[in-house]
Design brief:
The structure holds two protein chains of two kinds. Chain A is an all-beta fold. Chain A is built from no helices and eleven strands. In chain A, strand 4 and strand 5 form a beta hairpin. The chains are: A mainly beta, B mainly beta.
């Protein structure tokens, strides 16, 4: 099966500009996650969707970050305006719901590396 | 809430030598445990997982890990490493109920020296 797709792979912007990332999860996966991975650290959850509803966005900086998952499939993550500290790799992951297939595993995309100058 | 501590940020090791990457976790509830590997400019790939049962779990690429509940540890081992094992390794936990996200450690950079 095809893996999690993300685009773009790399993005360089200036501070205060806006940027958007796109994720297409594995077909049939109801749960979608966005993680932020700052250099030298492990990934940190930003937001979790189940179908097109938000399950957990407690660590999303809502003053500048927003995310949506249209029709329970693709998702976009937006930053507006960007700050220098937003430089990171943004990882998208997907998984089945409990009771469907292997609910314990999350499958990760290649990530988008954002550099804010 | 859960937390994960990876005790070594960098581990250099010679090719064909054994290696152990250490991971300790903290949680007030029962958890599932995972090790992921990240090669340069790539996403995370699952190496192995502990859900229940035997405390020694085997994964891909010859890696294994042992769950120790009393020491709240989940150390990753390989008896003989290859150059191709050079990568970043992440230990992660999640609650064993519901559809909860992963909580990751900061990672250990394994460098295999020829």
């Amino acid at each position: 099966e095809a893996g999690v797709a993300q685009s773009p792979r790399y993005k360089i912007i200036e501070k205060r500009q806006s940027v958007a990332f796109w994720c297409n999860p594995i077909s049939g996966h109801a749960t979608l996650y966005w993680y932020q991975q700052i250099l030298g650290q492990g990934p940190k959850l930003l937001i979790q969707f189940q179908n097109n509803g938000v399950v957990d966005d407690s660590q999303l900086p809502k003053d500048r970050f927003s995310a949506e998952r249209l029709k329970g499939v693709d998702s976009t993550l937006k930053i507006q305006p960007a700050k220098l500290e937003d430089s990171a790799v943004y990882l998208c992951a997907s998984s089945h719901l409990p009771g469907q297939g292997s609910r314990y595993e999350q499958y990760f995309g290649p990530g988008t590396r954002l550099t804010v100058t | 809430a859960q937390s994960v501590t990876q005790l070594d940020s960098q581990v250099p090791v010679f090719e064909e030598a054994p290696v152990e990457l250490r991971c300790n976790y903290s949680s007030s509830v029962s958890v599932y445990l995972f090790w992921y590997v990240q090669y340069p400019n790539q996403g995370l790939q699952l190496l192995l997982k502990y859900l229940s049962g035997s405390t020694l779990v085997k994964g891909i690429n010859g890696f294994e890990a042992e769950f120790n509940k009393s020491q709240t540890s989940f150390h990753l081992r390989k008896p003989s490493v290859h150059i191709s094992d050079t990568a970043e390794y992440f230990c992660a936990v999640r609650e064993n109920s519901g559809n909860t996200p992963l909580v990751f450690g900061k990672g250990t950079r394994l460098s295999v020296i020829a």
